[in-house]
Amino acid sequence: MKRSSLLKKIFHSLKTHSKRNATGASEENTQDYYASQWSLMWKKLKKHRLARFSLLCLIVFYIIVLFANFIAPQDATEYDSDYANAPPMQLHFFDEEGNFHLRPFVYGIESTRHPETYRKVFVEDREVKYPVQFFTEGSEYKFLGLFPTNIHLFGVEDPGEIFILGTDGMGRDLFSRIVLGSQVSLSIPLVGVAISLIIGLIIGGISGYFGGWTDAIIQRIIEIFRSFPTLPLWMALSAAIPAGIEVVKMYFYIVIIISFIEWTGLARVVRGQFMSLKKEEFVLAAKIAGVSTGKIIRKHLMPGIMSYLVVSITLAIPGMILAETAMSFLGLGIRSPATSWGVLLQEAQQIENVALYPWKLIPLFFVIFSVLCFNFFGDGLRDASDPYKK
Amino acid sequence: MPEPILRVKDLNKEFKTKSTKLFSKSVPVKILKDISFDLLEGETLSVVGESGSGKTTLGRCVLNGLDATSGEVVYVTNDEKAVDYLNLGKADYKKYRKDIQMIFQDPYSSLNPRMTVFDIISEPLVTNYDVKKKEVEEHVADIAERVGLNPHLLKRYPHAFSGGQRQRIAIARALITQPRVIVCDEAVSALDVSIQAQIINLLDDLQTEMGITYIFISHDLSVVQTISDRVAVMHLGRIVELASVDSFFENPKHPYSEALLSSVPKPDPDVKTDRIILQGEVPNPGNPPSGCEFHPRCPYATELCRTEIPELKETGQGKRHLSACHYADELELRGVWHANQAK
Amino acid sequence: MKQMRANKRSTEQPLLSVEDLKVTIQMDNAVLKAVDGVSFTIEKGKTLGLVGESGCGKSLTSRSIMSLNPKECETTGEILFNSSLDQKLKGLNILDLDPTGKKIRSIRGKKISMIFQEPMTALSPLYTIGNQIMENILLHRTKNKKEAKQIALEMLRKVGISDEEKRFNDYPHEFSGGMRQRVMIAIALACNPELLIADEPTTALDVTIQAQVLELMKSLQDELGMAILLVTHDLGVIAEICDEVAVMYLGEIVEKAPVHEIFNQPKHPYTKGLINSMPILGTGKQRLEPIEGTVPLAINMSHKCGFYDRCTHRIQGICDVQAVPETQVSSNHSVRCFLYNEHEEDEQNA
Amino acid sequence: MLKYIIKRFLLVIPVILFVSVIVFFVIQLPPGDYVTHYAAQMAAQGEKMTAQEITEMRQNLNLDRHWFIQYLLWMRDIIFYFDFGHSFNYNEPVTAVIERYMVLTLVVSTITMAFTYLVAIPIGIYSAVKQYSIGDYIASAIGFLGMATPNFLLAIILMYFSYVNFGNPLLGLFSSEYEDAAWSWGKVLDLAKHMIIPVIVIGTASTAGLIRIMRAQMLDEINKPNVVTARAKGLSEQKILYKYPTRAALNPIVSTLGWTISSIFTGSTITAIVLNLPIQGPVMYEALLGQDMYLAGTWLLFMAVLTVLGTLISDILLAWLDPKIRTEIKGG
């Protein structure tokens, strides 16, 4: 938060004053003085309500990613064309007679033709009730990728179906697909950032620490990389991904393409931070004390840039989520049968589709929501990132 | 007569200015020009001058925090060996590096905010000696007490301390390897007067107790006078006067010193000295004037000053009072001594 | 005592009188009293020095006079500016005025001007020096651009900038630190203000340049006759140009006296401590007498003397429990310390 | 100043050359080439090409040579004949294809840019001056949402609303009756109507970003000591705002103008595909997929050149706006 220089001065002197007090008399929050940067950051972050809430949401998101197979009632390949384009089902607590059921239930659905447009429409069959059951058996999968099981979080008994967010054009449960899609949509950015970070750290670190010629050359290279327009390059690169390759490989390609563009940004952050930290007097002090270069980097420089890195990583992720979505949306990224939020949105490409089956836009909500969460969290982190500055 | 502990010979430092213009060559700016002096064991040598005079660069070059462009710094070790401090071999590096330490001006940026005070103080010790954890703790507690820090607070981070206390931490860090020389770079300039006096006294006590030699870099002549044995005045990268503190304040032998002394505001409304006010500003070190670099501002400058660079040489004040002025012995320059002694 | 002050006021009204000025800042979970009941007066054409260590509230005090405090500060009290030229302003409390309103704007820059510590950041890097001087003149003195330029050039000459025609079109970054401070002074004095507030005007400058700037301020004061409020932490600068001195500690004025008395007969233990801890040029290698301890925090202070913990003369049971009253030790020397309560009685008895 | 510009311009040339190599490398990356693609198309229509024919075709098009040779040939034609090659898909010179779509692309881009700046700057200023007011919160919320919503999806949403409310999703840039008609007042109005969604959609992302940058810049500037100085002179708040912080905050923003040019050109691509706009983006997308390499390559190169030139323009603008840089350049 920027304040006038005068106020800054006041707060600054205030801060030092309060510390002086602490060293003299005992004070309530002397805890702070034993607190490391991270705990101070955490303390500040906790005050940021929006960021805290976003963090909570992100945690929930990633728990879903981890247990996607368990949470999704169907697996990615299951479909039933009888139920194509079914609207979201309502969960009922009260039946026709108005009796309350503690366990929610859904009615069976039947498709009929609309008398005028002859379009398929679904109506609830009030005769059949399917209570929602928890820990039901369904398709086989490996829990956490390790233990084979067929237990799913919830479902209804055969022949009932539960589509809480409706189905797509092939009759696949949208909720399941969104949950499964989150595995790709939310993990690609993480892996992408990790790769960019490694490249960025090494190249930016070299550039920033050594400076001089090395720096000049690396900077030129980064400049050239940056002078590529991102989007067309993405398109061109992903057009180069051969069709019909394995899902894993495809995933890998996409990550590479995304991080290919992103690393320059992180390299710049790392370089800038190294450059400014290098000039701090405590680095010179360590050098004079005879501390080796490696140790200076490890003990003095790295901890200093860590907080900035965490911030820039958090703020880089939303861009990657959007990039993956855009690529998959255009059919250039993840392709069916693999699923991601972008893939799910492909069906929303035709306006008619959206007009008739508006629930197909639901994945969009997840995209926006996760991007917002990362943005807010990143913003909060940025404010908290330097707990020593007011 | 104390022996020299450091012999600085013809030290030069150039910086390449980063040219903002394309295709134009960067011009090296000379920050230090042929600096030579001996630092005597146990003394405090103050280096004074305006901002941009190169005093901070000098301090950093002497202890090899910055690479000097040319020249040498000879360090006379405890066992009377003379080693080239700027080019220490690997074994010597390990042995002697720790003998010269530094205290910085800004007690905020000189302490890593991400390390505890204990880690900050112990770092030089752990780096330079093979010591057990227990010994380290004892040493740190010992030194902390000596500089007036409560040893119970060492697990705290620097942000828990005020400016004055931070400066004590920095002093403790500098002392822990038991150095023989400490370079104090504007070590008290950032502090309030009442705190400044505490730190000055602390430095003084440490010198008496441990026999440390100080290079005391400062722009504040009043502070310099309370702590130094000798004074070196720098102007545009050159030492223009080098003298014992009494001789310097009583009989300055360079017009620049005279101007500096008379510019210091005296905290005594009854003393109305008619002061010498220098005209103009410090010249740009990238484009220094010809001849004596002080001549554009010097009230006594002659044609000779415009053309010839004066050498730093002995004056009538004796062997140990050097001045780089063509007219060092001819000018009747005013010091500040008599004014107060008269009072 | 009160009578005496009243008498003084009736004979001649001071140019500026500040009564019980308080500036508080709301912190996360506490209230900081940055300035706590400060009162002083400045006579026409005189110089008052406000001296104190960092964080004592001297800058906020000086800015309150022009109602320039940041929004986060709550400022109360009375600031009366008795312009001899503008009768309309008589009796108006500056703090009652809308801080962005017309009235206060007609005072700022015209009747009262200000110079700051960092001339580089105080000037905009985007406009020429000429533009920035003329702005002030066009606002308060003349609407005629040609005339304004003439005045501006004259001001530049006055503050010792030679080659003013050319320099007029230069940008601040083309000036050195000392020159920039001269420009700031030119801007501040362009409309012949009656009061100049100088907030650490020489702190960022080298001694040689500081000497130039102080000399310039003195000579311009002689020439233009404005009063100066000089805010600084440097007692040397105070001794150099002030007539009267107010020593601030922890948001309060602890001692106020003519400059000679402050240096020759300081009364408050803090003032004494300050003077003793200052190295004085020309006295040789000497041992300083520092004030022990550090400045406490002005948050949630109890009723005690702020200097209590550091004071060598503290009286347990008095200084730490009672609010310290201001004591007048002579007609123009007041001190906020219990040590002098008796003096007052003695004096009155006598 | 002129000398500076020329120098900068000379520096740009090697960068563009380097970029062009990479561009060419990237477009030939996809497995197969235009001939494979063409053969597959023919096969789909029932006309099988023989291996002989395929080889011949490849030789004719120089596609059998090493990619770097192909690059050199392409570059030679560009430099000496201003010939960017032949579009296989359209069966006409690349330049002709680009020319056809250029005008509308420029119209859309320019209007979008104007929209972005006109909306973002005032909102940014307002947001900063009234920090933490309701207006600021609303602007920030819109800003965040705008950044978080992929703009092609925003397009779908807007189309959906337009379709539901007006029964017309406003696809394309013209209604069918004006598509091939000569320019008339009606056609212009029709174009304007069709521009609304693209401009909002394409502009939103950059507007949102710009609002946040402008706000941050303003907050920075508003608290600078030179504003206090101006206040101490007795200037009115409005004058202060306009003369000091706004002017200073605009400098970095105006200097990003250069970068914005290419980002708006490319940012519109996906949206244009969704909205079926007859501008460059979709055409080039097809070219990339159909391995129409010269068309795709030219487009990529064009974008890269735009980015590089944009950076150049930005640097020049910055130098022109900042007195400090200006004197340095003058001095040399």
Write up what this structure looks like.
Chain B: Belongs to the ABC transporter superfamily. Chain B: It comes from Gracilibacillus halophilus YIM-C55.5. Chain B: Pfam families: ABC_tran (PF00005), oligo_HPY (PF08352). Helix content of chain B is 31%, strand content 23%. Chain B has 343 residues and is an alpha/beta fold. Chain B has two domains: 4-18 and 29-228, Rossmann fold (3-Layer(aba) Sandwich), CATH 3.40.50.300; 252-342, no CATH class. The longest helix of chain B has 18 residues, at 193-210. The radius of gyration of chain B is 21 Å and the shape is globular. Residues 19-23 and 339-343 of chain B have low confidence and may be disordered. Chain C is an alpha/beta fold. In chain C, a hairpin with a 2-residue loop joins strand 10 (327-330) and strand 11 (333-335). Mean pLDDT of chain C is 86; it is low at 1-10 and 343-350. In chain D, helix 5 (94-129) crosses helix 8 (185-222) and helix 5 (94-129) packs across helix 11. Chains in contact: A-B, A-C, A-D, B-C, B-D, C-D. Chains B and C meet through helix 6, helix 7, helix 8, helix 9 and helix 11 of B and helix 8, helix 9, helix 10, helix 11 and helix 12 of C.
Helix percent band of chain D: over 70%
> What is the distance, rounded to the nearest whole angstrom, between the alpha carbons of the first and last residues of chain A?
8 Å
Main pleated-sheet profile of chain A: 3 strands, antiparallel
CATH superfamily of the largest domain in chain A: MetI-like
Point out poorly predicted stretches of chain D. Answer: none
Structural class of chain A: alpha+beta
H and E order of chain A: HHHHEEEEEHHHHHHHHH
**Termini of chain D, distance in Å?**
9 Å
Instruction: Figure out the total of helices of chain D.
Output: 14
CATH architecture of the largest domain in chain A: Orthogonal Bundle
Overall geometry of chain A comes to elongated
Proportion of residues in extended strands of chain A? 5-15%
CATH architecture of the domain at 99-286 in chain D: Orthogonal Bundle
Biggest sheet of chain D, strands in spatial order? Answer: 1-2
**Class by helix and strand content of chain D?**
mainly alpha
Radius of gyration of chain D: 24 Å
Please state the overall shape of chain D, judged from the principal axes of the Cα atoms. globular
Largest sheet of chain D: 2 strands, antiparallel
The SSE string of chain D, one letter per element, is HHHHEEHHHHHHHHHH
Family (chain A): Belongs to the binding-protein-dependent transport system permease family.
Protein name (chain A): Binding-protein-dependent transport system inner membrane protein
Organism (chain A): Gracilibacillus halophilus YIM-C55.5
Membrane topology (chain A): Multi-pass membrane protein
